[in-house]
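ok new one. same drill as before - structure tokens go in, u give me an amino acid for every spot. 225 of them this time. try not to just spam alanines like last time pls lmao
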């Protein structure tokens, strides 16, 4: 890949977060979303893990699970009650402002529940350096087919939600019902953050500077411009 193409690909990865996901449940296999087997997937020995950001996108899973080729993972569409998907108060190692969960009683967020085996779970967790693996209990997470999962694991940001103009900010790409938070898309939130913390940089320069520092750049509450 030419240097200009590589630069464009790196910038695109930051700006297109949280990436495209299928409109259905699927079986992940080596970067592809394939049809579930008749009767549904075998979930024995697998951990239900809430995915509300990039971890349900085949593009992202292909990068994260590249060292475990040939292993399948069920990825089931769901709806999570009482939470919204907001931006975290940090930059990821690939230059995006990523997501975290925030409580929001009136909201129903479209999410996925992925079912990694132990090997896959350990690898995913090792890559989530800015997140804690927690257990959500007593939640209303409804899978396709009306099955409800009351307890499941989830990654939640160590840094909490980004506070912009006095409020957490939801991901516009996640079309939650009953949303009460303001929302922005990824390019817009990255530009707002850049304007506050590094106004001398262009958006592209800010993304690459964040990547060069390993992605951990914490934000104080960001006030109106």
């Amino acid at each position: 890949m030419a240097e200009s193409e590589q630069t464009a690909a790196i910038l695109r990865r930051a700006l297109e977060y949280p990436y495209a996901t299928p409109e259905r449940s699927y079986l992940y296999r080596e970067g592809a979303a394939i049809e579930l087997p008749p009767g549904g997937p075998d979930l024995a020995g697998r951990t239900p893990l809430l995915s509300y950001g990039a971890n349900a996108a085949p593009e992202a899973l292909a990068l994260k699970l590249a060292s475990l080729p040939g292993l399948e993972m069920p990825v089931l569409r769901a709806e999570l009650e009482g939470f919204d998907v907001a931006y975290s108060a940090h930059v990821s190692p690939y230059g995006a402002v990523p997501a975290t969960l925030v409580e929001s009683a009136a909201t129903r967020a479209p999410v996925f529940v992925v079912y990694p085996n132990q090997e896959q779970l350990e690898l995913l967790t090792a890559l989530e350096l800015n997140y804690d693996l927690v257990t959500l209990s007593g939640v209303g997470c409804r899978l396709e087919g009306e099955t409800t999962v009351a307890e499941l694991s989830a990654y939640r940001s160590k840094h909490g939600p980004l506070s912009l103009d006095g409020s957490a900010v939801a991901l516009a790409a996640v079309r939650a019902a009953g949303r009460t938070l303001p929302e922005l898309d990824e390019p817009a939130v990255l530009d707002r953050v850049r304007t506050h913390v590094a106004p001398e940089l262009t958006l592209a320069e800010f993304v690459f500077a964040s990547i060069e520092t390993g992605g951990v750049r914490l934000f104080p509450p960001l006030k109106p411009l």
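The two ends are 39 Å apart (CA to CA). and btw The first strand starts at residue 26 and ends at 29.
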